[in-house]
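Dissemination and training. As part of the outreach component of the grant, students in the summer workshop were shown how a complex can be specified as a set of sequence lines and then modelled as a single object. The example used during the hands-on session is reproduced here so that future cohorts can follow it. Participants entered these lines:
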Amino acid sequence: MEATATSGLITTEIFEALQQIVGAQYILADQENLQHYGHDETEKLLYLPEVIVKPATTEEVAAIMRLCNLHLIPVTPRGAGTGLSGGALPHLGGVLLSTERLNKIIQIDERNLQVTTEPGVITEVLQDAVKAKGLFYPPDPSSKGSCFIGGNIAENSGGPKAVKYGVVKDYVLNLEVVLPTGDIIWTGANVLKNSTGYNLTQLMVGSEGTLGIVTKIVLKLIPLPKYDLLMLVPFVDLEKASEAVSAIFRAGFTPSALELIEIDALQIVAKMVDSHAVPVTPDIAAHLIIEVDGNNMDVLMSEMEQIAELMATYEGGEVFFADDAQQKAELWKLRRRAAEAVKSVGYTIEEDTVVPRAELPALIRGVKALGKQYNFHAVCYGHAGDGNLHVRIHKEGIPNSYGNEEMTHILRAMFDLVYSLGGTISGEHGIGLIQKKYMDIVFKEANLDIMRGIKKVFDPNNILNAGKIFDSK
Amino acid sequence: MEATATSGLITTEIFEALQQIVGAQYILADQENLQHYGHDETEKLLYLPEVIVKPATTEEVAAIMRLCNLHLIPVTPRGAGTGLSGGALPHLGGVLLSTERLNKIIQIDERNLQVTTEPGVITEVLQDAVKAKGLFYPPDPSSKGSCFIGGNIAENSGGPKAVKYGVVKDYVLNLEVVLPTGDIIWTGANVLKNSTGYNLTQLMVGSEGTLGIVTKIVLKLIPLPKYDLLMLVPFVDLEKASEAVSAIFRAGFTPSALELIEIDALQIVAKMVDSHAVPVTPDIAAHLIIEVDGNNMDVLMSEMEQIAELMATYEGGEVFFADDAQQKAELWKLRRRAAEAVKSVGYTIEEDTVVPRAELPALIRGVKALGKQYNFHAVCYGHAGDGNLHVRIHKEGIPNSYGNEEMTHILRAMFDLVYSLGGTISGEHGIGLIQKKYMDIVFKEANLDIMRGIKKVFDPNNILNAGKIFDSK
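and obtained this result:
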């Protein structure tokens, strides 16, 4: 799907004013760049902006917002463009504001276990920088090698470590934000506890670039655990695998990762990355990837043994322990590249379902039943320990759910199921453009009216990432 | 029953309508009750409501709000009245809405490690109920034996365990809320990860009863750690004690509690509860209370020994280990009752300062200097591991800061100091009535305008706990 930038809002005067702000080389409007910045990782969608602007400072961002607010020009903020819900798609044309030049780690505060960073830093770069000081920033989306920390804030990202360490929102202490009007605020303070007025920090986290543009981020860090152990457990029965997930927590364990991957996904990704690390036998339905971490190796070994024994009672097969750093890396690569791999073979539609952990078997059963009913293929993988299951869908001739009536009907059935299990429609990808039409399943109109009201408080002219999360009234 | 009408808004018709909603025995207006519900634990302040209403269901709360919204009657929600910032003070008269009859624990979900509760349950009762199932709800304000979980949500309470386990906001998954208009919403879903629209759950937490009345609460639980160890370390130098706090984290330890208590406070509370558990010698300036918890006793013993050794390098004195449950309880009683004790001897004004952890020595030094400059006594205690220091102030002839010009001047100087250290004015008590005049120190007018705008979205007629956190414009 392609919408071209014919809104014609960027007059010569405005183009020149933008050039004045960021410098001529940091405003782009050539076809190649318009194409590049016109898509993210969401389905097969493409919307061209009119111009791409790359500010390097908070003040430049503020000047852009003041200009666009005055002239009512739509602005779409964008990090690395790895999003899966279309949050960074410039579907209204106008200005695409890229944060890629806001890419400095400003300070690692070892005294207070905090880091202050700009939003355009790659998540893994940030993690490695604090790791070098013996510190740990846990949230690790699958795309950590390419996504930006700013985008992680926008979507309240998770990743495998969330099951023990929480998601992005649990680490954000304070944010510098340029409001749609161009005003600059800090949302909180660089402290571990804060009961000082409404929590604007948490309101910004997960607001998908609709309330303001985050220009500085203060994150809490924790001491880096010394050791981790990783194992892979095969199951012949998918439901048994998902039942085993819940049993681990009920037995008192808190793994640092607890992932589920269906055999179809594992086969596809193993082929793509040419890996033979995992013996993939045809009788296996799914694997659990289980990691524990901590500072005492004996304790971890004992935990791992106990968990392995517990898995056997759920018909878990022969356990594969990752022996060294290389084997661990290989195993994680298989999990992390699953989305990319299955997308490349036609599973272009990804849903980010989340349910209470113990409802995972019912969710998987329901998804498979819907697949039979509506004639689509679904492969499941994800953060089973959090009840957060990614469902990748392939239905012949339908590459996008967005704008497709038949797939919309199917997905409404899926989200009805999710809601009936006590869950909701996004665990970590956000609503963005493509999920907004399902918000009525999980929220009353009163909720959506409150969200619209909040949007208006921040953005009276509805210029910043408008039409994401919900439609304005 | 004696009905008084200070602001005269509760006409006979409205009184009868309220009776219709909750039943005649659950609406009170006699002097004794008006006095009781006219104060909380904040300084020596008293404001009488016109009537006290005690609904028992969400629907009754909604009916009360619809009535009051129609007739523009101020409503002040109240939990157990243990607040320290005046959030529950009915300073505008009108209706005092007590949640004490919303006191059921609805469900402990052992499959998903969650509890659903009404707001009028005493925090410790809730903790004990989940503990009986081997589960753990960590946030434990000093008042846990009397405060309500609903009030904890309103203020985003903390307590000693916050240093390892986080504060209330880190455990709230979903809230049923009656809006000021009488509409009923759920803010989220009962899931561990959620990126579905603006985080209304986190917006409610810490909003001090100004945005809605929480009627049901879904909390995340974790497995209960099997063991804990507790020790008390004396210091002859207050600043050394606070420096030692930061050193513990930098050495890679995360204690489950790390409290500081100045010797004056310890002496006063030991006398009040007639305890001789701790040898209080005159050369000691302060103690650190250090707790570790986990599932492996050998690991904990080793941690405790290493921490004790580290304390010696900061001139820590002879360590007192709590040998058994009784000694632990005795030690915690001394800490938990410190506020009550020092208040009873004239330290009626309590400030809830919070700074980045490593700035604690500078904060204590600054507070003491201000005491000399402005001629007041201050005793300090609190959650040092979080940089959250309670400062109790005694100045002859000034029982309240609220409404006192001289004390307001002093406190502005103190909060200027806090802000200059990167901190803010409340870590866990909230802003309520008495701190709102200091909000300009830590926030721009743009922040406060956003908060006012959000308030208006939820409460267009400004009837619910109006005049708390900020004044309307």
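Chain B touches chain A through 90 residues (CB under 8 Å). Students were then asked to discuss how this feature might be tested experimentally.
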